[in-house]
Amino acid sequence: MSRIGNTPIPIEDGLKIDIQPDQIVIEGPKGKLTQPTFPSLQVKQENNQLIVVNTKPDNKQSKALHGLLRSLLANMVVGVTKGWSKQLQLVGTGYRAKLQGKTLVLTVGFSHPVNIDIPEDIQIKVEKNTEITITGIDKSLVGQVAANIRAVRPPEPYKGKGIRYKDEVIRRKAGKAGKAAA
Questions:
Q1: Do 8 and 51 contact (CB within 8 A), yes or no?
Q2: Strand 9-10 to strand 41-46: parallel, antiparallel, or no bridges (unpaired)?
Q3: SS3 breakdown of the chain: % helix, strand, coil, rounded to 5?
Q4: Fold identical between 3-81 and 84-165?
């Protein structure tokens, strides 16, 4: 059995949870999320807690999905109450970002600006033209949008220029001149 899957998920006041045989709907102050369930797993609500029960404990696939479903549900609870966010930073001379309606326009050293369409459930804020904050209620969608923006110009190891996560550490390499001096 999964240790993560056995941990109950605390439910805060103000959450509305609808457990159906094929899906779970969690609605909170920030929005509403839906997660399909797996046939070998059952979700119960007891004493302000969500509990994921493995109905076929000998099945290898149900053991694997047990912790996954519990993590997905916990992420949904946090998402509809507090929300998720990722921060990106543009590093490089002339690198900047701006919002035009529901489009993020990046100028990152190419001969043309790069336009990225923002999905419906995601909010993007640009501060100081070089810091991008991505927020939303769906953790996987927030992470995917951040990864798509970072993929436009990933940080390079020699000067560190590119789009990086705020807390990301870039391992720097010594260039040709740096190796000759050593």
A1: yes
A2: unpaired
A3: 25, 35, 40
A4: yes
Spatial contact of 165 and 86, defined as CB atoms under 8 Å apart: yes
List, for residues 111-153, the tens digit of each pLDDT value.
999 998 999 989 999 999 889 999 999 999 999 999 999 998 8
pTM confidence score: 0.82
Cα–Cα distance measured from residue 78 to residue 38, given in angstroms and rounded to the nearest whole number: 21
Helical (H) or strand (E) element with 23:
strand 23-27
| Bridge pairing between strands 84-91 and 162-165 | antiparallel
The CATH number given to 3-81 is 3.90.930.12
Considering the segment(s) 84-165 as one domain, its CATH architecture is Alpha-Beta Complex (3.90)
DSSP 108-165: SSSSSPEEEEPPTT-EEEEETTTEEEEEES-HHHHHHHHHHHHHHSPPPTTT--EEEE
